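chain below, 362 aa
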Amino acid sequence: MLAEEDAERVRLALSGRRAEQPAAVYPWTVADAALAEPVFDDGDVIGAVLVAGDADAPRAAILQQLLLISAIALVLIALGVLLVFRLARWVLSPVGRLDEAMVAIERGEMDARVAEDAGPPELRRMARVFNGMADQIERVMTRQQEFALNASHELRNPLNALLLRVEHLATGLGREWDDDVEETREEGRRMTRILETLLGLARGGRTDSTISAVDLATLAARRLDAWRDVAGQRGISLQTSGESSVMSVTDRTIVESALDAVIDNAVKYSPEGSGIEIGAERSGDVCRVTVRDHGPGLTPEQAAAATDRFWRNADTQDTPGSGLGLAIASDLLETVGGELTVSSADGGGLLVSLLLHDRTRP
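prediction:
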């Protein structure tokens, strides 16, 4: 017995009507499929042919093939991802070792090196170049330390001999020379402290700083007095400015050395008969020691480059100098967490500021 739907298809076929072809038949969209076609003989319908098929078997076969293909694709993707990770690790591991070696050198471990037999050829060459550069830096640092030790020996002896001669001469001078002798002694002691500080910087890039409470206004006034005779030889007057007392917790020797470099620069480039104002002031949590001259000044671009090593203004090439004064002052201040700023002063000239963060406040 035919199902009612199949019987209807047969009746339509016997009436001469051809079955409509479906647009698309997929095993996973239908459970079964049936077509009824008329049979003609000289234009007369003599019968009908019914074709029926069950979609369960092809559906199962297609699903099985689909699952197999999906499993193979997932395995291939996993292998591809694993291969990519292994390849990336092989390529990037030398870069990681380079980064670790650079961090170690920055910490002062000058013997840090990188293996040259890992990674692609380009990174192996980079590793060889890095190791060569590290070797050269280590040699330069070693020579610098040796020079610092030699300089320590060569400079300490003449300085000690000079101080001994001052003490010997002081025994034959009257009481009216006591102030000058004491100032000379203080300058000798200060030179000894400066020498120790600079040698410490040369040896390890840092110093054993002696942090203490310092009145920056008093310090600036003392350095002004020490430079007054030198400035007076060129007719330059030195004047105090700012507040009468500015307390800060810092390294006195570092600040004195940096201030001397700035004053030397101001005296060197100020025109004869001009003046220089030196003083200290507080602005919030920042203590500022300023040196303001009335020289030719600098443009904003030149002021930004003034603290670079060996930089000199093209207009002052005839004045003796090496272009290291402000650079050294800037480096010294960085060791105590300070900074040096250079800007044009109102009314002409240059304003150099030594900025020190106040450690006495939370």
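The first strand starts at residue 32 and ends at 41. The CA atoms of residues 111 and 207 lie 22 Å apart.
thats it, cya
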